[in-house]
């Protein structure tokens, strides 16, 4: 891939062949075409292939096409290793990668196949849409999304660089890890959530219809991904059964304990059901706070301003109003009021970037700012 | 509540007292104030009470205030029944309702308390925000949301009408059911999803940090409500333990079966793990399709147009383009192509409201429309 006229090791200059023109394969093809690459397409379905050619994603591969420098296997995970092995054999000079959501099973099969596996590096672009299929492909699908690069012990440095540059050229954020770490990671953040969402949604089959009329955003959010394709997910889970089973086993243990205590509690026993539920919800609070926020950081830290609030009608409201006029967003506010004192203390959580503005504007308007610091 | 000058049975003319000025209580107060009602507020925390008075939600209740006609108890579910009973005794002419997420436990306590429970009708306005507390109150919080009305066997018709009119005046959609049906319903659509989301999010505590960097929308959606307040949810779950435990028990059974098969599968056994996973995801598909869509109906039904597509380059792309020009949104498209035939068959799923337009526009442009009907 040429950048600014420099041709480095790790730049692909020749054709790219994409095997499997579903959502991911076609999106990659459209992205590469937009960058000026020569792209060939192959797919077992002639009509899907025809559609993607019509969409401008590339030319249909046939035996008269030039040999590719890079082959991207975008086939379902259960046929992926075979496609990779075939490509390594058919194209002895090409680097080969794949896009499957599981990596260890594929790497094992490829490395044990007797093919020239040093030219293979696994990929997992973590992007997608609710709808699958070529018709929904988008050249910007990968923009800002993680693209995991998974070399095997045999992969050459050149192969790794080529795949890394592919990810970068498509706007993705490359991150490298070995197959075991990858599969564990996706078990936690993707595969277990999928199965749990499906198990939860399945409960609605037993719900009376008047119940569904009360559905709200919480139910919709927790079951949205339960609309996924059973065939695709069966292949994914089969390819990552070990890590998934381990995490689900721990969940099962916590759930079994909660169910037993709740059943006894509902029959009148005092069995610590309250404590167990509190622990589960609190543990969930801590777990969800580990998910990075919008800008890739863990839960933001807030700044806290402490302001004296005179014990007169309207003063609290005035504090809110004047912070709003200063365009300071209030994340949270707590009030302490000691009986008999003439003041209350308001602790206001705000964006750390607003500290100076908030302090100046409040003092300008006569407020007594007691302290400014980091929120707990 | 006066409508167009008519004063009917079921109209409240006098003051409304709201006990508990958190998110829900304060939002109700703001809504009633905007409609011109006389509203009084009470809360165990003087500073929270002061804040809500400052926000314009009403006047602080004291012994010099006029007797209320309607009392709304917006206290946490574990103190709710006591507050309702006290209100029935303190205000012998008032109708009393509450807003707790559980109804049977509260109704039982109120009816067994010896108070004049015929003036009590339970409520559950199903609205909320991620953030709790008076500072985030909104007079339009209930707009378009379900408001469940739960009379007891003793409630008078007048009491039911007053509470129903309260809901309607705040823009909510009233729906009536008995306490048992209510508690079962919210177990399915709210309480079980909450606990499952918390259990899922808690797994992230054991995840390596490189895993969290791969978090995507699926994880965020399934764990969003895991940010809920442990104290509130402990009180809710304790008040609805029976129905919740029953649903969770079924989930536990399905989960245990899946875990066992996945563990055996990962150790090399052929134990039907594939079939079990496929069944779980498919059952989840069916479950989630029972959730009403945006306009209150179950999963929309689509129309399907079958169009002959000549086997020439560019024809599929032309079909897409010309449907777009006719402003017909394509929900899904599948293609069949029989080898050796000169045509393929495109099945295009579209909004049923677009059938006539799509058919006319395609035929105008020379397409052969084979059939039009309801999608499977």
Automatic annotation (TrEMBL), chains A, B:
GO terms for molecular function: NAD+ binding; prephenate dehydrogenase (NAD+) activity; prephenate dehydrogenase (NADP+) activity. Keywords: Amino-acid biosynthesis, Aromatic amino acid biosynthesis, NAD, Oxidoreductase, Tyrosine biosynthesis. InterPro entries: 6-PGluconate_DH-like_C_sf, ACT-like_dom_sf, ACT_dom, NAD(P)-bd_dom_sf, PDH_C, PDH_N, Preph/Arog_dehydrog, Prephen_DH. Transmembrane segments: none annotated. Its EC number is 1.3.1.12. Pfam families: PDH_C, PDH_N. It is an enzyme of class 1 (oxidoreductase). Pathway: Amino-acid biosynthesis; L-tyrosine biosynthesis; (4-hydroxyphenyl)pyruvate from prephenate (NAD(+) route): step 1/1. It catalyses: prephenate + NAD(+) = 3-(4-hydroxyphenyl)pyruvate + CO2 + NADH. GO terms for biological process: tyrosine biosynthetic process. Residues 14-292 form the Prephenate/arogenate dehydrogenase domain. The keyword DNA repair does not apply. Residues 304-376 form the ACT domain. SUPFAM superfamilies: 6-phosphogluconate dehydrogenase C-terminal domain-like (SSF48179), ACT-like (SSF55021), NAD(P)-binding Rossmann-fold domains (SSF51735). Belongs to the prephenate/arogenate dehydrogenase family. This is Prephenate dehydrogenase. It comes from Scrofimicrobium canadense.
């Amino acid at each position: 891939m040429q950048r600014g006229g420099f041709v480095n090791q790790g730049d692909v200059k020749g054709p790219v062949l994409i095997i499997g023109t579903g959502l991911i394969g076609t999106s990659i093809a459209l992205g590469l075409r937009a960058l000026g690459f020569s792209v060939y397409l192959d797919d077992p379905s002639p009509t899907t292939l025809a559609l993607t050619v019509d969409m401008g994603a590339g030319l249909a591969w046939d035996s008269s096409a030039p040999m590719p420098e890079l082959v991207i296997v975008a086939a379902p995970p259960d046929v992926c290793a075979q496609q990779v092995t075939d490509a390594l054999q058919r194209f002895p000079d090409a680097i080969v990668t794949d896009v499957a959501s599981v990596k260890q099973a594929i790497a094992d099969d490829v490395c044990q196949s007797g093919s020239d596996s040093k030219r293979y590096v696994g990929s997992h672009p973590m992007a997608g849409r609710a709808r699958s299929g070529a018709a929904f492909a988008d050249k910007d699908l990968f923009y800002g999304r993680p693209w995991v690069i998974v070399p095997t012990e045999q992969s050459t440095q050149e192969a790794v660089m080529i795949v890394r540059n592919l990810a970068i050229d498509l706007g993705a954020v490359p991150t490298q890890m070995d197959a075991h770490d990858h599969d564990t990671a996706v078990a936690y953040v993707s595969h277990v959530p999928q199965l749990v969402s499906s198990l939860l949604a399945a409960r609605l089959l037993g719900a009376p219809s008047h119940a569904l009329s009360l559905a709200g955003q919480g139910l919709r959010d927790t079951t949205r991904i339960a609309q996924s394709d059973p065939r695709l997910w069966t292949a994914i889970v089969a390819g990552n059964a070990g890590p998934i089973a381990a995490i689900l086993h721990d969940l099962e243990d916590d759930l079994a304990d909660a169910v037993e205590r709740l059943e006894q509690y509902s029959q009148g026993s005092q069995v610590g059901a309250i404590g167990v539920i509190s622990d589960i919800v609190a543990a969930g609070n801590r777990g969800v706070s580990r998910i990075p926020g919008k800008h890739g950081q863990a839960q933001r830290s807030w700044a806290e301003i402490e302001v004296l609030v005179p014990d007169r009608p309207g003063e609290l409201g005035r504090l809110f109003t004047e912070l709003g006029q200063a365009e300071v967003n209030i994340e949270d506010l707590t009030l302490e009021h000691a009986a008999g004192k003439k003041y209350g203390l308001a602790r206001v959580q705000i964006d750390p970037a607003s500290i100076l503005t908030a302090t100046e504007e409040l003092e300008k308007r006569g407020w007594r700012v007691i302290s400014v610091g980091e929120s707990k």
